[in-house]
Amino acid sequence: MRGIALFLSLVLLGCGVAGASGVNPYWERISHGLPNNTLVLEHHYERHDSLVTMNVRVPQIWGMTDSEVQAKLNEALASGVQAWVDEIASAAEIFLEEVEAGSFPNYLPFTLWVDYETQYNKGGLLSLVVSIYAYTGGAHGMTHWEPLNLDLTTGRHLTFADLFPDKESRSAMAEVVEARIKAEPEIFFLEGFDSSMFSESQTFYLREGEIVVFFGLYEIAPYSSGIQEFALPVR
Questions:
Q1: Contact between residue 189 and residue 223 where contact means Cβ atoms under 8 Å apart
Q2: Which of 54, 98, 155, 213 has its CA 20 to 30 A from that of 136?
Q3: Per-residue pLDDT tens digits for 125-178
Q4: What DSSP string runs through 87-131?
Q5: What is the C-alpha separation between 149 and 15, in angstroms, rounded?
Q6: Torsion from C-alpha of 72, 214, 159, 66, nearest 10 degrees
Q7: Cα 174–chain centre separation
Q8: What is the pTM of this model?
Q9: Cβ(158)–Cβ(211) under 8 Å?
Q10: Strand partners for 212
Q11: Residues 135, 110: contact at Cβ < 8 Å?
């Protein structure tokens, strides 16, 4: 099943690169941030029938200073998740028709679970991870994580380059990845890792005093190893 870019429309909020000189201001806000007034609420949707099983929680953000940016953000979150709901339902209907036509021996209901976790909500920064599990037949389903890292003071969607704008900071993060690969080589595809192996769209989320870089299923390790996370302390 093809992937859907959950937060594609967030480019409307703008992207950029933080200054690389001195202490990274985002690192300061991750390590010493005070709680935000912003709340993360949710819309909950369920569907259980012979065709599909769905349990969907869509995060919705409230309390941002800029109500227009907040509305765009919530619309992007809702429409991104709805795209998954529509695609799973459509794929299930098509597959059931093929089963009834005799192309496949039996039909198992397709599954979609969407959940989220608020990882960090301090210092004018908000970091969420939306977890999407989809089963569309075969040996197992697939789990996909979509991070949302937002500067609430500007409405900007933070990029990997904002947090790691120079070789020194990227090397520090790469050393964390490299150390784990060397310590547990049996669970990875790779034999080593360096900063050049990060992509500009590298996925990450923020946590109290840490930046956590993660790699999806099959990116650097087999399915059985799961999604791999690597935390860099920035205290």
A1: no
A2: 213
A3: 999 999 999 999 888 999 999 999 999 988 889 999 999 999 999 999 999 999
A4: HHHHHHHHHHHHHHTTSSS----EEEEEEEEEEEEETTEEEEEEE
A5: 11
A6: 30
A7: 20
A8: 0.88
A9: no
A10: 205, 231
A11: yes
Q: Residue written as tokens 């908000």?
A: 126
Strand partners, 230: 213
Residues 6+ apart with CB under 8 A from 176: 213, 230, 231, 232
Give burial (CB, 10 Å; 0-12/13-18/19+) of 23.
Answer: exposed
Cα→Cα distances 83→7, 49, 112, Å: 11, 19, 12
According to the model, what pLDDT value does residue 22 have? 56
CATH code that applies to domain 25-158 = 3.30.565.40
What's the rounded Cα separation, in Å, for the pair 107 and 104? 8
Using CA atoms, how far apart are residues 145 and 130, in angstroms rounded to an integer?
6
Domain limits, the chain? 25-158, 159-235
Show Cβ contacts of residue 5 under 8 Å, excluding neighbours closer than 6 positions. Answer: 80
Report which of 125, 130, 127 is spatially closest to residue 154, judged by C-alpha positions: 125
Beta bridge partners of residue 129, listed in sequence order: 117, 147
Short-list 3, 13, 130, 123, CA closest to 60 = 130
Q: How many CB atoms lie within 10 A of CB 218?
A: 11
